[in-house]
Amino acid sequence: MKFLRPETLGEAAALAREHEDAKFISGGTAVVLMLQQRLIFPTHLISLTGVTDVPGWREVRRTETGLRIGGGVLLSAVARSAHVRELAPSLASAAGVVGNARIRNQATTGGNVAESDYASDPPSVLVSLGATVEVDDGTAARIVPAAEMFTDFFTTDLRTGEVVTAVHVPAAGPGSHASYTKFCSRSAEDRPCVGVATAARLQDGVLASLEVVLGAVAAIPQRWPEVTRAALGRPLDEQVAQEVAEEYAMLVDPIDDHRGSAWYRREMVRVQVRRSLLELAGDGGAA
After folding, report:
1. Which one of 196, 241, 259, 275 has the largest count of C-beta atoms within 10 Å of its C-beta?
2. Coiled coil where (predicted)?
3. Distance between CA atoms of residues 246 and 225, nearest Å
4. 8 Å CB contact between 136 and 9
């Protein structure tokens, strides 16, 4: 296995196209783990740490429409960012509970999205907030909705040579609230057994919009818009929270692993969705 360190995004993309079994690496937290577990067998590792021609690669910026988080921004920086904590507090919360401090100080925003790890915390939050992902292969860029980015276990909509250069999070409007809750069946530093990202907008005391997205229960973040649409026009109260939780528990088809059986995950979905929605009702996650 060869280690390559290009200096431009175009060079990195060209190397990926030249070497079919190459793998991009930045913080390395996910890639190194998969190498150790013999889940991947790349012929080349293409480091993105030397790439210097991507504007805002390591910056969190406020924009006219919300936030732009560069692909090279560490998760620890996302968690600490005053801009993120103000405009997208649920994302700051999710970034702040990924693994432990060592992992958060190495893992990047772009790498977290690109790996599509089913048990990582940020993806479900990005979907709940209506975020979009900016990808670029050095010749052309495109924007992919976060809801369409994750396609299977460790699989995304990324094409050969494309790199996640930024994540865009829209600014929440008046009356908006969001939260992220992580339930771990083992230690607090473990990956979640169930993660729940919620986002809502209240107008005149009733729901004008509602998103509930589950993480760590299936290959990709799970959501059922038909369920949340049925709650619109109603107060966000105990009855709505219970109804949505019951529907999600009924619709989810959970995985079965060492963090929890399918049955256990289904029960935790019921509990955690209800708790998350009641947290919003109590204004626990103002956005």
Report:
1. 196
2. none
3. 14
4. yes
Do both 164 and 185 map to the same domain?
A: no
pLDDT tens digit sequence for 170-223: 998 899 999 999 999 887 778 999 999 999 999 999 999 999 999 999 999 999
Structural domain boundaries, residue 28: 2-47
Phi-psi region for residue 266, left (φ > 0), alpha (ψ -120 to 50) or beta?
alpha
The token pair that represents 4 in the structure block: 């390559």
Buried b or exposed e, range 143-168, using 16+ CB within 10 angstroms: ebebbebbeeebebebeebbbbbbbb
CB-count burial class (<10 Å; 0-12, 13-18, 19+) for 10: middle
Helices (H), the chain: 9-18, 29-36, 75-80, 82-87, 89-95, 101-104, 109-115, 122-128, 146-149, 225-229, 238-251, 262-281
Interatomic CA distance for residues 158 and 150, integer angstroms: 9
CATH of the domain at 107: 3.30.465.10
pTM of this prediction exceeds 0.90? yes
What six digits make up the tokens of 72? 């090279």
Q: Measured between alpha carbons, how far is 193 from 187 in angstroms, rounded to an integer?
A: 11
CATH number where 263 lies: 3.30.390.50
Same domain, 66 and 166: yes
Which residues are registered as beta bridge partners of 209? 201
Contacts of residue 19, Cβ cutoff 8 Å, sequence gap at least 6: 43, 44, 46
Question: How many Cα atoms are found within 13 Å in the side-chain-facing hemisphere of 153?
Answer: 5
**Secondary structure percentages of the chain, helix, strand, coil, to 5:** 35, 25, 40
